[in-house]
Amino acid sequence: MLPNDGSRTNHALRASMRRFDDEEELDLVVVGCGAGGAVLTQRLARKGWKVAALEAGPFWEPDRDWVSDEAGSHPLYWTEPRVIGGGDPVPLGSNNSGRGVGGSTVHFAGYTPRLHPSDFQTYTADGVGADWPITYQELRPYYEALEAELPVAGQHWPWGDPHGYPHSPHPVSGLGMIFQRGCQRLGIDVRVGPVAITNGRFGNRPHCIYRGFCLQGCKVNAKASTLITHVPDALAHGAEIRSGSMVRSIEIDDRGRASGVVYFRDGVERRQRARAVAVAGYAIETPRLLLNSACRQFPDGVGNDHDLVGRYVMVQGAAQTAGRFPEEVRMYKAPPPEVSTEAFYETDPRADYRRGYSVQCIGPLPITWAEHVVAEGHWGHVLREYLCDYVHWATLGVLCEFLPLPGNRVTLDEERDRHGIPVARFDYTQCDNDRALMRAGSQKMAEILDAAGAQDTVTIARYAHLVGGARMGAGPETGVVDRNLRSFAVPNLYVTDGSVLPTQGAANPALTIMALAARCADHLAGGAASA
Amino acid sequence: MKPRFPGYDVLQQAGSWDLVTAGVVLARLAPPPPLRFFTVDEERVARPLLDRLLAQDGPPEDESRIPVLEHIDARLAEGETDGWHHDDLPEDGEAWRRSLAALDEDARAVEGQHFWELKRRAQNRLLENVRTAKTWHELPASRVWNLWMRYACTGFYSHPSAWNEMGFGGPAYPRGYKALGLDRREPWEVREVDAEDPEPWARRVEAARQRQDSDHAAR
After folding, report:
1. pTM, two decimal places
2. ipTM of the complex
């Protein structure tokens, strides 16, 4: 779907995009065009549905809009106002949000691991978290399909449900070598991948050039984002992607069914009618929209009869530890995602905490690297000295499975955005299990770096990813949506993004979100929305 | 501070960068526009504050100085925040205004002079106090510190002069990198002078710490 003239965008496809009228009743309107929204839109367009995805941000053109530069990539993130609070507030913005077609897949690192089978029943097996209303086996065919579509490169994966990848692993950089060396000396199993970065040409997508700016949007088109994978395919099959469209509320008719959405475009308030609505705005904007859609039938927000909307929002504890090595590492080269281990993913019966963590390569660029040094309390001359030593440092990151807690939630703040819509407030506080897990993960990274020969290490406590907030459950008392992502309260309303995850595992969430959206599409195509 | 990558100039590679990236990066070398956000009162507190945070101790006319204040002023004037603020801190622009006023209040209360009139050592003392305080002028001190450092580091480390100082290869599209692995460099990258560590890392950090604690100007 991408042109073969070396440019990054199929202009003809965008110019000929089908455009629906607001008054026309669509089969489905999708709110948000990131990992979940784009996959759902593409799947249903292929089934012949009249479907449009409304996206608040722009329709990116990588050649024109993106840069190989950290500070210059600011427009890729959701930077409209939000308030954070709680005992351990979670910074938002560049770390865990996206804005524009492709959503955060535009600037995700590209790690695309699956969840493990054990993730689907942590309450039964480990006494923490929650059980999913679906099993790993039900999601597996969708994982396999998405891994082929992106496609994913990596070594054969020995953890969870062992599986291979369609593309062979990428070559390893100095950073990856340090990680492998440390793990080898400690007897820890480690693998290259899994990353959604083509290894070799893929259609008209060129080979990765190892420039290290994955988190700033891949100008090369080597890293998959739904902007270059599922969106072009959706357009070719008759979907509309309506960018610059900020949805204010979901409309509920007298029969208690969703009848469309109210949205702002160019400052003008408009209504798009639709037979079904799917919300895919991610873990902050999805609960915000459901709460902001309060109406006569749902005075506390759509689907919020049991006070579950906005609750159980999760972030992964993502401490990063950097080690100083005598050799030049130059960790800015090669994709920041390269090598990982899931050897500590599941509950270790000897540990004083439940569930586990994964360890991955992280290659912070200068501004992000400065955050590490600042977090140690350094400033002035000492800050500059550390930064000048950049080429000698190698950084690892953990993803700790923090638990879903009801008090970690999105609510509406008094503050309003420029459209007059109340902004989201996100309160977050860790529990004891979270803290113990983060300590263990940080210690493991330091052990690995020490084993690799580090002369000095520094650790920064931080978070990554956002899921939960509209979780799926077995019934309306435990979930906002059911096993098919359909709202318990409104039969033709769906949530198809990371906010439906009941637990998060220690895996980056993008592939799971896409797989869930693809599964929901099969359910919808089976005639569900008209039920 | 001894240069670690003598002769390295990332701008020599600008010809190999894509035009959009080159435009964004080279614009940082252009004369900055007049200040729009900070008032004069705020500017004269903010300049020495940022100089101390980033150890830019050269004279104001020094051409190698990175214009961090101008970068922050432009961001705040355009409302380019990071997309969130703490519930116990006002939004970023207001937080900057309040914290600059509070810093000058400290200077007058403790030293009897405005912040910009103080010697570096006295300025550093006041700043270290903010960094280690719990509550500071009814604001959460660590969050004020984080706000300052976040904006300061983004301004400083987005500038090519800072990349030269740290040996960073900079933008690499469409050329990319070929030399992956330990102790490997592109033909145009410069080897770090102390790569074989004649001056061990620990001693170098200790020297920087002493530079930070001493006050050359006061002597």
Report:
1. 0.96
2. 0.96
